[in-house]
């Protein structure tokens, strides 16, 4: 290869012959090490957080930190898959329709997070065995990969631990308030009596 007077490169006949003789690209020049610090990494953006129990065939984990556990009241309205988060100030107006739960941040094997509504312990000691077993399995999921399965013969949920070596979950680096915002947004948070879900429930709209 020679240089022109203006400093540019001139392809020599030898270089031209060398390229035309091989006709192949040297792909080794394009190889990147997967451990290279300069390797770009895509970060998953969280735009949807379901609220509900895990499927009976899904192995899941629960975040062990209390800061990712949120005691609240949920309202379920027919024909709407998403529950509503309702303010304690007005929850008594629909007491027969709400459910008190502890929302626990959970994750499945594919890295999909969700909020698991877990029944709280009853202060009066009048414990429902379904709720008790449900709560115990959610607590077990803080340390092990488990799946939740109902057993009507014994009238309780049963846990099944994963037999294989599943890696520890990678939790999102987000505070619980941000996760709640994604899960409920503005449409599924009931702050006052004028919310459309309440008006529908009362037959006003």
Q: Can you describe this structure?
A:
With 205 residues, the protein is of the alpha+beta class. It has a domain at 60-201. Helix content is 20%, strand content 23%. The protein has 5 helices and 10 strands; from the N terminus they run E-E-H-E-E-E-H-E-E-H-E-E-H-E-H. The chain has helices at residues 13-22, 88-91, 129-140, 176-184, 196-201; strands spanning 2-3, 9-10, 60-62, 69-75, 84-86, 98-108, 113-118, 146-151, 156-161, 189-190. Strand 1 (2-3) and strand 2 form a beta hairpin.
Portion of residues in beta strands equals 15-25%
End-to-end gap: 82 Å
Biggest sheet, in brief?
A: 6 strands, mixed
What overall form do the CA principal axes indicate?
globular
- SSE series: EEHEEEHEEHEEHEH
Average residue pLDDT: 87
Number of helices: 5
- Counting DSSP E segments of at least 2 residues, the number of strands comes to 10
What would you call the structural class? alpha+beta
What is this entry, summarized?
It contains five helices and ten strands; from the N terminus they run ββαβββαββαββαβα. It has helices at 13-22, 88-91, 129-140, 176-184, 196-201; strands at residues 2-3, 9-10, 60-62, 69-75, 84-86, 98-108, 113-118, 146-151, 156-161, 189-190.
Lay out the secondary structure:
Elements: E1 2-3, E2 9-10, H1 13-22, E3 60-62, E4 69-75, E5 84-86, H2 88-91, E6 98-108, E7 113-118, H3 129-140, E8 146-151, E9 156-161, H4 176-184, E10 189-190, H5 196-201
Parallel strand pairs: 5-10
Antiparallel strand pairs: 1-2, 3-6, 4-5, 4-6, 6-7, 8-9
